[in-house]
């Protein structure tokens, strides 16, 4: 391939098809957030399957809320590298939910919501994977002008934190029966696997910090994670009566969520202040 062709491919652009896929997904995420946050006790009739207690519905909705922000930004972003690291996480999340669905078909409601759910998760992992593969060569690997480089110790720390979340999610997914005995509130094997899929998001996103230090490559993703974390905090406040305080996982989970808000919030503020300073002093 000639140099001009390589330059054209590595233009950091977002293809129209990528934007249209994002725009197509957003309404389904909005509908899910409304149903799960607004009607958590009626998920059996309004959503794809009955979810109890409400905290499980809230946690799934929190992930979808972050997804709305992410895909809105995909539809409007100027550069591919601003959103590229979110795609592997979406593939893993959607694939996990597809597998969970196939393993627990008897738990789902045979209604329109289930048909939509099954159709989306039978196609989304593959569509998103194709989009990521087609778009991947367009990231030139360069930082924005100006940009901020995230310090190595911060990146390693977040990657380790994400790995812990991913391992926890993997245990819940692979051994959902065990999760019913240790999780912070009552879960079924299906909801345990769904929550495990949610926990995988942070792990997959944060793993990319090990080889990419550009703040511009994580800014949107951290905003989405902060939005999800804020929703989880509000969910824990609203659903505190459903927490099982005799289980060690309850204070651990609350502590991790609190730490997540503090760490992501502080790092976002730190990077944004330095980015603003760089813009002020830009020649």
UniProtKB/TrEMBL annotation:
<feature type="transmembrane region" description="Helical">
    <location>
        <begin position="111"/>
        <end position="135"/>
    </location>
</feature>
<feature type="transmembrane region" description="Helical">
    <location>
        <begin position="249"/>
        <end position="269"/>
    </location>
</feature>
<feature type="transmembrane region" description="Helical">
    <location>
        <begin position="190"/>
        <end position="211"/>
    </location>
</feature>
<keyword id="KW-0812">Transmembrane</keyword>
<feature type="transmembrane region" description="Helical">
    <location>
        <begin position="20"/>
        <end position="39"/>
    </location>
</feature>
<feature type="transmembrane region" description="Helical">
    <location>
        <begin position="51"/>
        <end position="74"/>
    </location>
</feature>
<feature type="transmembrane region" description="Helical">
    <location>
        <begin position="218"/>
        <end position="237"/>
    </location>
</feature>
<feature type="transmembrane region" description="Helical">
    <location>
        <begin position="86"/>
        <end position="105"/>
    </location>
</feature>
<feature type="transmembrane region" description="Helical">
    <location>
        <begin position="156"/>
        <end position="184"/>
    </location>
</feature>
<protein>
    <submittedName>
        <fullName>Uncharacterized protein</fullName>
    </submittedName>
</protein>
<keyword id="KW-1133">Transmembrane helix</keyword>
<keyword id="KW-0472">Membrane</keyword>
